[in-house]
Each structure stands twice: as C-alpha cells, then as structure tokens.
Amino acid sequence: MANGDWRMINGETNWVSKTGWVDTVKTSHSNELPPQSADWFYVRAAAVARHIYLRKSVGVGRLRKVHGSTKNRGSRPSHHVNASGSVDRKVVQALETLGIVEKVDEDEEAPSLKGGRRITQAGARDLDRIALNAVEGEEDDE
C-alpha cells in the first residue's frame, strides 16, 4: 500500500454507506460551515482506513487529534482543536461493519495494544488491492 497511499484516498472510496446527517454536520467546532464536497465522508473513511492500516491500533481520540485543525479566534492567538468525535466514530463504525477494522481487546495476547481499532487481514487485503488499482490506473494514464 505504500506506493498508492494518497492516490487511494481519491480512488475507490464509495464502499462505505453514509447516513442522512452527513450533508449538514460540521467536522469540527473550528469550522464555520460543513464540508462543501459531496463525497467528503468517503474521503474521510479512506483516510481513516489508511491511518489505521499504517499503525498497530488507533482509537477515536487519536483520530480526532489527527483530523483536528486550527481555530481562528479573531485577534487572539489561534489554537489547535480536535475534530468531531461523532464523525470519526461513525466512520470507524462503518469500517467495522464492512470488516475492514476490528476492536482491539485490552486483555488480548498483545499487551502493547491498549484498545482502539486495528486493521483486519481481509481489510489489509482490500486496501492493498485498492492501492494497487490506483497505482496501475495512474501508470495507464502516463
């Protein structure tokens, strides 16, 4: 997946079903408006899947920090604020229903993993296939 990292995010992302609130929700309290792109939920799902793929386990709190942004506070100094936990939680739950990620139990055989979600074998295989298709599609364009 290393070669097709960011090309995958704009590639096959329509494999996640989105709910009705996706059109009106803001992704952070630092934003004034909801996302303008109609397929932002798919792009976020692909970004979350890639983020979990590259790490052992990732929780929703870490995803909130990664997807956070800088809040404009007018004449006061700007500060980093986390993204909406609901959005990242719903994305992770959608990936879980597809079998791409799974919950990590804290009492498992690997004590270094402290909860969160990790990629499944089937999920890693699917993401590798999507990344390969993205790389092959770009090579065909050249």
Automatic annotation (TrEMBL):
Which GO terms fall under biological process for this protein? ribosomal small subunit assembly; translation
Family matches, as InterPro entries: Ribosomal_eS19, Ribosomal_eS19_CS, WH-like_DNA-bd_sf, WH_DNA-bd_sf
- Can you tell which superkingdom this protein's organism belongs to? Eukaryota
* Bias-annotated ranges (Basic residues): 66-79
* Coiled-coil stretches: none
GO (cellular component) term, any one: cytosolic small ribosomal subunit
> Which Pfam families does the UniProt record give?
Ribosomal_S19e (PF01090)
Spell out the protein name for this chain. 40S ribosomal protein S19
Origin organism of this chain? Answer: Capronia coronata CBS 617.96
Query: Which family does the record claim for this protein?
Result: Belongs to the eukaryotic ribosomal protein eS19 family.
- Extract the GO molecular function terms from the UniProt entry: RNA binding; structural constituent of ribosome
Residue segments, region Disordered? 66-88
- Taxonomic classification, please? Eukaryota, Fungi, Dikarya, Ascomycota, Pezizomycotina
Is the keyword Ribonucleoprotein in the record?
A: yes
Question: Per UniProt, which keywords does this protein have?
Answer: Ribonucleoprotein, Ribosomal protein
